[in-house]
Amino acid sequence: MSRAFSRHPALKRDLVEIRTHIARDNPEAADRVVKAILRAIALVKQSPEASPLYAIDDPELDGILRRKVVTEFRRRYLVFYTVTAEEVRVLYAHHGALPIEKRLDDEPHRV
After folding, report:
1. How many domains does the structure of the chain reveal?
2. Distance CA 12, CA 65 (A)
3. pLDDT digit string (tens) for 37-77?
4. Cβ–Cβ contacts within 10 Å for residue 33, how many?
5. pLDDT of residue 75
6. Residues 47, 44: Cα–Cα separation, whole Å
7. Which residues span the domain enclosing 8?
8. What is the distance between the alpha carbons of residues 9 and 11, in angstroms, rounded to a whole number?
9. Is 96 within the bounds of a domain?
10. pTM for this structure?
């Protein structure tokens, strides 16, 4: 049985914000970063268990939250996603220097 694959609505907003922020200084770099994030998401879809679990003190996400590092950019961008028996769901694209815990606490994961 194959799992469903979905993207949280916040992911599109994340990609727009990342691109807009970088494009202020370098539009070409902004495109490269967004394309790298999309490639990382494609890898998540192909092999969701390849990335490690992300330890978090949240009963809803404990044991299912994973983090994919966008390696082309020195671990600066991360893709957070969940894996269950039924679904792989990409939640956020996030800059690695920013804490993810507050965002995970503040935003619903199943919208």
Report:
1. 1
2. 19
3. 999 999 999 999 999 999 888 888 889 999 999 988 766 89
4. 24
5. 62
6. 5
7. 4-106
8. 5
9. yes
10. 0.90
